[in-house]
Design brief:
The complex is a heterodimer of chains A (463) and B (298). Chain A is α+β, with helices and mostly antiparallel strands and 463 residues long. Chain A contains 10 helices and 13 strands. In chain A, strands 5-6-7-8 form a 4-stranded antiparallel sheet.
């Protein structure tokens, strides 16, 4: 037991409180840093000194500087982000499909359909009218144009969703390589297993949060502090220090859309059907389920229009006596994109029900009747109702995705707030700590002054 | 719960964005006057709007057809109206040649006069509205009757026009019914009666003239019957028009209910959303100005 011992205690107190002040200032500095978890200093007493009277304390020591972090919350928020990512991309893309099919505002396909039948009705008033016949052809052409453009808008949009899939895949690859890199650095910094690489871990957590927004995954952390990330049916995306790249390959069996694959070192495995979260899930769902559904329905609609009108038209006679001619033409299986008006000569419009009689409108009346006919191929509804149902359907789908999205956004925000409550920096708290440690620092300095005076007293004895 | 600085800012932001979003929607409704701009705004209502629009478009078509049928029937009725006095003149001439002017020479004079009347009647029977013959049935590029009143083609068809869903009405009077008496009880072929009359007059044939005169009486009845028929069709079409217009009003009103914004509600809603945003801003301003412990350190 010596004066030097007391001096030493003062020194340790100065050092520890200075370190504590540094941690506090760092927290204050990083109050707005995304992904930053506040840090806390753990302080312990140093090993005491044994005397006959008992143990004498020897000072204070920094045990650990750790980040305040809730592993369970982090795991939960990963799930929320996966759902959020899926719903947000689904919501955005479905609302664009809705825009393509929207008939509520502006001219649409339905208006074209009505105009076509209305011009046929005008023709029934004046079956050999030059103007009426021209009108029928021009309305038929604009109907065909609007069907064609809906079809091409849908297929163009499907391609752009596919491009979205490709860009998400490259984002995922970038994150995977960064995580693998961070794994290497964390393992190096944490060697020995005592200190935690807080900053690097924060960075890695942020990246893993971003990754969850893109694709769903499972992860494990090994005793070196490295995480391994698995996607699809357990294919490793990141395995400690190494990572595998996702790739896309054109799938001719699915309209030349991209198949998402992962390399397992030797071969590529398709994981398209195993993706159940993140932006990729939403994009794939819209690309492979939603858009094809409406494409098929549009084709069914067009096919019914073409076959009903053609069948009836072929039974009638044109002004030139022609009969048996089709009105529309379309390629089977791809009707909406290929429908065209087969008739160019207006005299061939078969308005007459009998061999030529210029004012004969029997057949055109029957063609008009198709508008009100329940068509078996459309599930016993009319052309109008079938199309209306399609528009209403995309409306409900879009509405329900938006609602789920809002709910998901809310619960994601709630969880993120809870994470902030645990890991975020509070200025009040830091200010209080600042005072606490500053006072302790002042006291330690006072202690050293006291020891200095004690030493002076001893030295003065000799004089 | 620990409240941290970022929590406060993020909540403020989220609320501000939400309020701005709903203010924007409310503003959209006030400015466009429409409740929905896309199907997802209200899918149920969207379905109805689309259906109503189809019905309205069909009603416009029916109204157009009704107008066209009415015009055609009016025209036909006027034409028949002008044929009736001519036929009456012929009948009068026939009767006179049986009583007062009954010499052979006078009858030949009458025959010439009747010939002129016949031409007038044939002109009426070949009458056109615009480009289309009134009494030609489905025929149409050449005159349906030759100069002596024989049909040159099939003139039997009724041209049916759709005036309501599944309801059609004949817009014409077929020539063979009006002038040939086909399908009319006690009907006569007016033109062959007149031709017979001319022959009988020239031949000074009392019995022939007598027969023709009564045939002409039947012909007049036939014209009147057709006129009555046309009037009946016109009144039927007017009733349909009333009904269709009634439906149009109902559907237009229903469409407006689904589609158009009630301005009182919309403006009130807009004010409410505006107030909510203002309150959020005011609260945000105050929260952001609350000093932290830092501000009290000396």
């Amino acid at each position: 037991m010596s004066i030097a011992g007391v001096l030493n205690i003062g020194r340790s107190a100065l050092q520890v409180n200075q370190a504590a002040l540094q941690v506090t200032s760092n927290n204050i500095a990083n109050v707005n840093t995304p992904g930053y978890s506040r840090q806390r200093i753990a302080i312990e007493t140093t090993t005491p000194f044994r005397t006959d009277a008992g143990f004498l304390g020897t000072g204070v020591n920094v045990q650990e500087i750790s980040r305040v972090y809730d592993r369970f919350l982090a795991f939960q928020v990963k799930g929320e982000r996966e759902n959020y990512g899926a719903l947000s991309s689904e919501k955005d893309t479905i609302s664009q499909v809705e825009d393509i099919l929207n008939e509520i505002q502006g001219p649409g396909l339905k208006e074209g359909l009505s105009a076509f039948f209305n011009s046929l009705s005008d023709l029934s008033n004046n079956a050999d009218g030059y103007v009426e016949r021209s009108q029928v052809l021009s309305n038929a052409n604009s109907l065909v144009y609007s069907i064609n453009s809906k079809a091409s808008d849908l297929s163009r949009f499907r391609t752009s969703v596919d491009n979205g899939v490709k860009s998400v895949v490259s984002e995922v690859n970038m994150i995977a390589s960064q995580i693998a890199d961070l794994n290497t650095r964390i393992a190096a910094e944490e060697v020995g297993g005592v200190t935690k690489a807080n900053v690097l871990r924060d960075k890695r957590d942020t990246l893993m949060g971003d990754l969850a927004g893109f694709i769903n995954y499972n992860y494990t952390e090994d005793n070196l502090g490295q995480v391994s990330i698995f996607v699809g049916k357990g294919s490793p995306l990141v395995l400690g220090k190494s990572y595998n790249l996702l790739s896309t390959v054109v799938n001719p069996g699915n309209g030349n859309m991209s198949e998402v694959q992962i390399s397992n070192g030797t071969a590529n495995i398709s994981i398209t059907s195993d993706i159940s979260g993140g932006n990729l899930k939403g994009l794939l769902n819209v690309r492979d389920t939603v858009i094809p559904d409406y494409q098929n329905r549009l084709n069914t609609f067009t096919d019914a229009l073409v076959s009903e009108v053609n069948t009836q038209h072929a039974l009638g006679y044109g002004l030139d006596g022609s009969t048996g001619s089709p009105f529309f033409a379309a390629t089977a299986g791809n009707e909406a994109a290929t429908i065209s008006v087969a008739i160019t000569d207006k005299n061939k419009i078969a308005a007459a029900g009998n061999a030529p009689g210029p004012a004969d409108n029997e057949n055109v009346l029957k063609i008009i009747g198709i508008q009100d006919k329940s068509i078996v191929a459309l599930g016993n509804t009319t052309l109008d109702n079938y199309y209306d149902a399609m528009v209403t359907d995309i409306g409900s789908r879009s509405q329900s995705v938006s609602r789920s999205f809002e709910y998901q956004e809310f619960s994601k925000q709630q969880l993120e707030t809870r994470i902030q409550a645990v890991s975020g920096v509070s200025m009040d708290e830091e200010a209080a700590n600042l005072i606490k440690f500053q006072r302790a620092y002042q006291a330690a300095a006072k202690l050293i002054t006291t020891v200095d005076e004690m030493t002076q007293t001893i030295l003065d004895l000799k004089r | 719960m620990r409240i941290t600085n970022n929590m406060v800012y993020e909540r403020l932001n989220a609320n501000m964005v939400n309020n701005q979003d709903s203010l924007d929607e409310a503003q959209q409704r006030v400015m466009s006057g429409k409740k929905i701009s896309k199907p997802s705004d209200n899918p149920g209502s969207a379905g109805k709007i689309l259906e109503y629009k189809t019905v309205l478009s069909k009603i416009d078509r029916y109204n157009q057809n009704i107008t066209s049928v009415q015009a055609r029937l009016d025209f036909t009725s006027t034409m028949l109206g002008s044929a009736t006095p001519t036929l009456e003149e012929i009948e009068k001439a026939a009767r006179e040649s049986l009583s007062t002017s009954n010499t052979a020479a006078e009858r030949q004079q009458t025959a010439i006069k009747v010939g002129y009347f016949l031409n007038q009647l044939v002109d009426v029977a070949n009458g056109k509205m615009g480009d289309s013959y009134l009494f030609a049935g489905y025929g149409g590029t050449t005159d349906p009757f030759d100069s002596s009143g024989n049909a040159t083609q099939d003139i039997s068809a009724n041209i049916m026009i759709e005036v309501d869903n599944g309801v059609t009405v004949a817009a014409n009077s077929p020539g063979d019914r009006v002038f040939k008496g086909v399908g009319v009880t006690g009907g006569v072929d007016v033109f062959s009666v007149i031709n017979n009359l001319i022959t009988a007059l020239n031949a000074n044939d009392d019995a022939g003239i007598q027969a023709a005169a009564s045939g002409l009486g039947a012909g007049l009845k036939q014209f009147r019957a057709e006129t009555v028929d046309i009037e009946m069709r016109k009144s039927f079409v007017s009733k349909i028009q009333e009904r269709v217009t009634g439906i149009k009003n109902i559907i237009t009103e229903s469409l407006s209910k689904e589609e158009d914004v009630d301005m009182n509600t919309a403006v009130t809603d807009f004010r409410a959303k505006e107030l909510a945003l203002e309150s959020t801003r005011a609260a945000s301003g105050r929260v952001l100005n609350i000093p932290t412990l830092m501000d009290f350190l000396k």
